[in-house]
Amino acid sequence: MKRERVGTAEKPSMVREPDQQIVNDFSIVVATVNGTGSQTANMALLRSLFRMGVPVNSRNLFPSNIQGLPTWFTIRASTREHFARSESTQILVLMNETTYEEDLAMLEPGSVCFYADHFEVEPKPPGVICYPMPVKDIVREASPPKQLRDYMTNMVYVGVIAEMLGIDLSEIQLALETHFQGNPKPVDLNMGIVDQAALWARENLTKEDPYVVRRDDKTRGKILIDGNTAAALGAIYGGLTFAAWYPITPASSLADGVLEYLPRLRRDPESDDATCAVIQAEDEISAIGMAIGAGWAGARAMTSTSGPGISLMAEFAGLAFFAEVPVVIWDVQRMGPSTGLPTRTSQGDILFVRFLGHGDTKQVMLLPGNMAECFEFGWRAFDIAERLQTPVFVLSDLDLGMNLWMSEPFTYPDEPMDRGKVLSAEDLDRIGEFARYRDVDGDGIPYRTLPGTNHPLAPWFARGTGHDESAFYSEDPEVWTRNIERLWRKMETAREYMPKPILRRGDTPEAVGIIVYGSTNPAVHEARHLLAEQGLPTDYLRIRAIPFTDEIETFIREHERIYVVEMNQDGQMRQLLQLEYPDQAVKLRSLTHNDGISLTGKWVADAVTAAEQN
Amino acid sequence: MATSMVNEIQLTKKDYKGRPSTLCQGCGHNSIASQIMAACFEMSIQPEELIKISGIGCSSKSPAYFMSRSFGFNGVHGRMPSLATGAIVANRSLKAIGISGDGDTASIGIGQFKHILRRNAPLVYIVENNGVYGLTKGQFSATADVGQELKYQGTNPFLPVDICMEAVASNCGFVARSFAGDPKQVKELIKAALVYKGTAVIDIISPCVTFNNRDESTKSYAWGRAHEDRLHDVTLVPLRNEIVVEYGPGEVLTVPMHDGSMLMLKKLGRKYDPADRVAALSLLEQARARQELVTGLIFYNPDQPSLQEVEDLIHVPLSQLPDELLRPAPETLEAIMADYR
Ligand SMILES: Cc1ncc(C[n+]2csc(CCOP(=O)(O)OP(=O)(O)O)c2C)c(N)n1
Ligand code: SF4
Ligand SMILES: [Mg+2]
Fold it and tell me: Do B328 and A265 count as a contact with CB atoms less than 8 A apart?
């Protein structure tokens, strides 16, 4: 290892002329092995960029495994806030010898590669600017405790990249303090290596690439958070009183978030007792069963799971729909069928959940597309569930749930809690009669009483069997038909309570409209820019709930061609739209891609262009 | 007692009645329903403050046939325990009776049965055990005797699941067995279970007169009458009542219940201490080997904390909390947001 200083004390990043620099716009991919503490290193880089005012987001592509398999962490910095996965990588960090050949294949000429210099064969891709990192030497120099050495190796690339791109070391220090929640010991140990590595880079590397980081103010006031934490917070601010769950990737961290924040946010100030119960169930059948029991008894009840859990919940979901019990179910989707790719993202549960349960069932669904909506739908789902007396499914996915996204800070709920049509003993005294399933208001939503309401008129018998207005058992065909028709009427009323779609269009509609929902939104956002640059302006609609609202129909009718972009094999949302608007079916074209890796703006733009040429 | 008589909360027996039963004449489940009504009447339970939860089966239908002034939930097959758990955590002031069958509990629902016991959620868990699937017309259940003959299915080759043995193995603190043909004992055990703070399992042999009442079946009336062996004579003396019966020395074992009631176990033939778990298991094993229907309180342990205690919940039912306790103040959200900057 060379020890002498190279050149002047000037930062290497100053070597290029400013007009040749590419500032705050690049995608970094860090190729490591999971279980080696790379998360600490990656978070330090991400947070320091964010706090320097650079818009960023991140994606973690990880294996279904605890230790020893390759993972790729992507940080995308984008002044235009393009946060879809980027198809091209400008900066690659090679820490995993077993994958580096494939990893290098993702690089185009002109891009940059930092590599651990102890690989058997030195990576020398043509046209790529390569910087070696003497990882082992630097770690040895910093001499952290032996048992921690393996976990700290990754801090080397943090220091080298910080130096070469111009990330302030003081920001790395602060980011580590956040990561270790102020615990000075690990901060110092890790920072020791970062400093060492930065110093080495300063003395030994000459900057040849154009990528630099410069302080900006584009993240002022913003937050960096994952969708599962956002959902957990939303639920807690929504008055969650009962949660039951069973561990499953990528949903577990939603329950973790609830458990983390409850002690701080939801204790009775007088007694210090908990105002919310959380139970780890023995399986998802039990988890939803408990949530339904709690919802029936008057709790704001929730369960969170992913596809395999949803499969197990089907029977109970139908019961809750039919017995009209409010309950909230988060489905953080992953790739199926079966165990599928449990650590990869997908939007494959849309159709299944919409009709979850045997017989005639229609489930209400909310579709968050960003962090603020994960929070908002977290609380709003309870209002909708209690208003409509029905299960509300919130469909997130791994990309939203487990990755860090930049967001506006969350807005405190701007409406009081809606507990729906619940009658108290005093109400019953006043009214003098009660039939649980009578459509008193003509909106299909009946009135309910909660178990424990001390009035002889209050009790009713919840059941999955055919029942009349008074909840008594009935096999009468007319009674059955009337009840289902009322439920369908209720699902019409449901539209009023659904979050409206987000629209982007000019005064006169373009020929092409794009419909999107959930985590594929950033790819469409970016694609519309690319398409506009190529001379194809498009209108945009993002669906946020099912059942659909009128704006969706209008949008479809006023465009000649509609592309529905989603991550599943057969265009599940398109099918739902075609079912709802059969006369518009031929207009609705499906653009799908489903390999577990989130969509890129380029893929969407190319797919639209290709389809337009057909 | 005449129907006009009132209990401590001024209700008559009529106030505990259910809808007319649609079960077969003579079905054991009907007589259990009668004893539930009697027990709740005698315990002066406010019907609106009790919930009845069940799975699916003839047995699970019966909550419709007792206590119409109570809230009920007839759920899905084998999942009564999860519904019950959620409901009683949501509203801890409710008393809860869960009704299940041997199919509902020992076949499709064995997992939920085991896990509610592990959590010790406050629930009177009644298994109306007839060794057969009544509602689907007479298939073998998991408690069917080995060698049991059924009209359509022939001979059962498998050993039965013993509900009480499973309950003791799962650390249930209140395990009882009874016989629908022994109404007084059924009633007294239900009364005791109603004041137990955790999950109380009562496995009641409840003959299915239509599909499994041949004299050789251990789930038949004839067998029960001939082979019932009462461990003791059970009487629950509720909190406010005085103990009126005089017992000779050593004649009765007095078990204090959580609410201050007393469970009196009057000795019959043998000496038996329900606090001894090993004794409980060997009793069940002997009863199996000798093909006896041992009834009474088989195991009792008041020490295991209930789910409510473990959850450290506020005393006001969660379902009745005011909005201020449900939605944290705006400043708290601002503070959290600052952590993510
Ligand atoms: C998921 C599911 N599978 C099967 C059934 C059909 N089924 C209804 S009742 C029953 C058996 C009930 O037996 P048990 O619990 O012993 O009650 P019994 O009728 O004997 O009182 C079955 C299998 C069902 N309702 N649900
Ligand atoms: S079939 Fe058997 S269990 Fe069902 S109601 Fe008739 S006697 Fe009772
Ligand atoms: Mg049975």
Answer: yes
Residues with CB under 6 A from ligand 2: B 23-24, 27, 29, 58, 130, 134-135, 208-211
Query: What CATH number does the domain containing B107 carry?
Result: 3.40.50.970
Q: What is the pLDDT of residues A413-470, one digit of tens each?
A: 999 999 999 999 999 999 999 999 999 999 999 999 999 999 999 999 999 999 999 9
Enumerate the residues of chain A whose CB falls inside 8 A of the CB of residue B112: 282, 285-286, 289
Residue B265 domain flag: no
Of residues B148, B152, B212, B156, the one with CA closest to residue B180: B212
By DSSP bridging, strand A70-77 and strand A129-133 are unpaired
**CB proximity list for A371: less than 8 A, separation 6 or greater:** A223, A225, A226, A227, A230, A400, A405, A406, A407, A410
The alpha carbon of A163 and the centre of ligand 1 are apart by a number of angstroms equal to: 69
What architecture is domain A18-220?
3-Layer(aba) Sandwich (3.40)
Note the Cα A516 to chain centre separation in Å.
Answer: 15
- CATH number for the region A225-407 comes to 3.40.50.970
Nearest CA owner, ligand 2 atom 2: B208
The reply to whether B239 falls in a domain is: no
Contact between chains at A298 and B71 (C-beta distance less than 8 A): no
Q: Nearest CA to CA, how far is B89 from chain A (Å)? A: 7
* pLDDT tens string A518-577: 999 999 999 999 999 999 999 999 999 999 999 999 999 999 999 999 999 999 999 999
CATH of A502-613, one of 3.40.50.920, 3.40.50.720, 3.90.950.20, 3.20.20.60: 3.40.50.920
Count of the separate structural domains present in chain B: 1
Residue A15 has pLDDT above 60, yes or no: no
Taking the centre of ligand 3 as the mean of its atom positions, its distance from the CA of residue B186, in whole angstroms, is 18
Chain B residues close to A240, C-beta within 8 Å: 326
Pocket of ligand 1 (CB under 6 A): B 56-59, 77, 101-104, 128, 130, 132-136, 141
Whether B339 is in a domain gets the answer no
Domain ranges of chain A: 18-220, 225-407, 425-497, 502-613
- Tell me, what amino acid is at A290? M
Pick the residue of A46, A49, A181, A241 with the most B CBs within 10 A to test the interface with B by mutation.
A241
Please check whether residue B93 lies inside any domain of the structure. yes
- Which whole number is the average pLDDT over A198-205? 97
**Which is the closest atom of ligand 1 to the Cα of B107?**
15
Separation of alpha carbons B191 and B44, rounded Å: 11
Residue A352 has pLDDT above 80, yes or no: yes
The tens digit of pLDDT for each residue in B294-309 reads: 999 999 999 999 999 9
Same fold, A18-220 and A502-613: no
Atom number of ligand 2 nearest to Cα B138: 1
